[in-house]
Design brief:
Layout: E1 2-8, E2 11-17, E3 23-32, E4 38-48, E5 54-58, E6 73-80, E7 84-85, E8 93-97, E9 103-110, E10 129-130, E11 134-138, E12 145-146, E13 155-160, E14 166-169, H1 178-182, E15 185-189, E16 192-198, E17 201-207, H2 215-232, E18 240-246, E19 256-260, E20 264-269, H3 275-287, H4 308-325, H5 331-346, H6 355-361, H7 366-390, H8 397-407, H9 416-428, H10 433-441, E21 459-467, E22 471-475, E23 481-486, H11 491-494, E24 502-508, E25 518-524, E26 527-533, E27 536-546, H12 555-562
Parallel strand pairs: 3-13, 17-18, 18-20
Antiparallel strand pairs: 1-2, 2-13, 3-4, 4-9, 5-8, 5-12, 6-9, 7-8, 10-11, 11-15, 14-15, 16-17, 19-20, 21-27, 22-23, 23-24, 24-25, 25-26
Helix pairs in contact: 2-3, 2-4, 3-4, 4-7, 5-7, 5-12, 6-7, 8-9
The protein binds zinc ion.
Zinc ion is lined by residues 284, 288, 312, 315.
Length: 565
């Protein structure tokens, strides 16, 4: 199958030769000069109706936390053919009647169904953004589909944009089918595009707005990250697009996030975006291009979070490897990130929750949302150590993942976690069923063996005091923290804290740290005082730490171990 892409000024056409597209989408972005320079997005979709003379049209509904997406579709109508919409439609579905197998053309306008500009307070707003200077559109939130859709069926797309607008979309990567259509990002307007290559593949960064960093520096680092992930997976470069839109942020608000679209990543950030943090996010997200999809995927639907320990936790494990091996962050920083994980995991209030609790809790409870990342990364380290030992160091986690990738995914193959388990068994003879049951399903706390990171230092196990603030409060209009309650049996009361006190400054300690005293300068009844206490309730939690000594460690050996070399 050969693909031709024509990218003329403001016009992009992707056509597939050798296969009839199941549908064609014509996206037209225009600036309506009559209506105070309003930007309009209109879509014309053409397809063949079902043989029985009735075709269901499915509107976007919910995606990535955005709900009732059918509200973005306006003025849906038949523009060609004699099809008619039946009465009695639901919000997400319309029924068309037509001559059997007739060609049908529909048109609709996509609107921004929320007011204003993207704000940091909204976080990642995946709904269509249609502004006077630009548009930002994610496939799942604005395309409708007709009939039963097979994700692999080819689709053709044309896009036209106003004179002078820059356009960037992963739809330009060619060979579009329904899956890639819905899993796409399209930006146009006052964007600036930087191009780099990995092998022979072009990668692009499209950004708009003002940032603290240079476009070219960000593009260079993006190239480093993408190249490193390709190298980890031993896969040649592929076309990739990173889009970045700034969120307007009021003082005190910051937000950085985005969504992975397979061959693209859409960033949303406040203007003070820390590029290091963004690139760390990108490293994790780019690894998702392989894990879990190309390793076998996860169960779909409500059961999906049951596999997040593998898709998220193992991805975090891989992210560490890629980050250290490419120098994206230092060996020291990686050790610090591992130690933070040990601390956060062990002190998680849900550390022993069974995997089944994550199914529902993932979307409603922040602790349960973080758990599969933490537990999965711990489990990856635990299993990696077993794998290495089984082959006297000749096999490691990477060999297992690479083999899974090489075998490929076919119809009906088991999901990625199950394939991982069988590949470990095949290569090492290790049967992981018992460990998966204990540590993943039942939620037994994972402790790693002392020599897991031997080149970086011994893994110490120790009892750490549990952090307990012992008081609650709120920030007043001046931003000063005012105490509302002080637990009479807690550590703050014993130190003399009382409701109504205004905490002006923190002089010592930090929130969440029970290993040192917290000291505050505060105002009470018009007097300025200082109070100090140890924010702990007398309980301890057992956790681990890599005893890393910069004076004696062989940094290169430690780096090799952390990056899996
Ligand atoms: Zn992820």
């Amino acid at each position: 199958m050969s693909i031709s892409i024509l990218a003329a000024a403001g016009l992009m056409v992707t056509s597939v030769q050798g296969a009839d597209p199941a549908a064609s989408y014509d996206i037209r972005v225009a600036v309506d000069s009559d209506e105070a320079s309003q930007t309009r997005v209109d879509i014309v979709v053409s397809f063949i109706g079902d043989d029985d003379g009735e075709t269901t049209v499915t509107l976007p509904s919910s995606w990535g936390g955005a709900e009732e997406l059918w509200n973005v579709i306006h003025d849906l109508r038949v523009t060609q053919g004699s099809a008619q919409f039946l009465a009695g439609e639901s919000a997400a579905h319309r029924i068309l009647t037509h001559a059997p197998g007739a060609r049908i053309e529909l048109s609709y306008q996509v609107i921004q169904d929320w007011a204003g500009v993207p704000m940091a307070t909204q976080g990642n707003n995946y709904r269509p953004t249609i502004q006077p200077e630009y548009v930002h559109l994610i496939g799942n939130t604005y395309f409708l589909t007709a009939g039963d859709v097979d994700g692999e069926q080819p689709v053709s797309v044309t896009i036209s944009t106003p004179e002078g607008w820059t356009l960037a979309s992963d739809l330009e990567h060619g060979a579009i089918n329904f899956n890639t259509l819905l899993h796409s990002v399209f930006v146009a307007g006052d964007f600036r595009v930087e191009e780099r290559t990995i092998d022979d593949a072009t990668i692009r960064v499209a950004l708009r707005g003002d940032w603290e960093f240079e476009d070219s520096a960000f593009a260079d680092q993006t190239q480093d990250v993408l190249r490193a992930t390709h190298s980890y997976w031993q896969s040649p470069g592929e076309e990739y697009l990173v889009t970045v839109i700034p969120l307007q942020a009021d003082a005190g608000w910051s937000s950085l996030g985005g969504t992975n679209l397979g061959d693209a990543f859409a960033f949303f950030s406040d203007p003070l975006m820390d590029p290091d943090r963004a690139l760390r996010t990108l490293t994790h997200e780019h690894a998702h291009t392989w894990n879990p999809g190309r390793l076998g995927g996860l169960d779909e639907g409500l059961n999906e979070p049951a596999g997040y320990w593998f898709s998220e936790g193992f991805t975090d494990f891989i992210t560490q490897r890629v980050g250290v091996s490419t120098g994206l962050w230092s060996v020291e920083s990686s050790v610090q990130q591992w130690n933070e994980l040990f601390s956060l995991y062990a002190s998680s209030p849900v550390v022993s929750a069974p995997n089944s609790a994550i199914l529902n809790g993932f979307w409603t409870d922040g602790n349960l949302q973080r758990l599969p990342y933490q537990r999965g990364m711990m489990f990856a380290a635990l299993i990696e150590h077993q794998i290495r030992r089984s082959g006297d160091g000749s096999i490691d986690m990477d060999d297992i993942l690479h083999a899974m990738l090489e075998i490929g995914v076919a119809e009906g193959t088991p999901n990625a976690p199950e394939r991982f388990q069988s590949e470990v068994l095949r290569q090492t003879g290790l049967d992981l069923s018992n460990d998966i049951q204990r540590y993943i399903m039942d939620g037994e706390t994972i402790y790693l063996e002392a020599d897991t990171f031997s080149s970086c230092g011994p893994l110490e196990t120790f009892d750490s005091p549990v952090f307990d603030y012992g008081m609650t409060g709120h920030r007043d209009e001046d931003g000063v923290f005012v105490l509302d309650t002080v637990d009479p049996n807690g550590p703050a009361a014993a130190a003399g804290f009382e409701p109504g006190m205004r905490l002006l400054d923190r002089i010592g300690g930090r929130y969440g740290d029970a290993s040192v005293d917290s000291t505050f300068r505060l105002e009470h009844n018009g007097q300025i005082r200082e109070l100090s206490y140890r924010p702990t309730n007398g309980h301890f939690v057992r956790m681990q730490r890599i005893a890393f000594d910069l004076g004696t460690v062989d940094l290169e050996a430690c780096g090799d171990q952390l990056s899996g070399r």
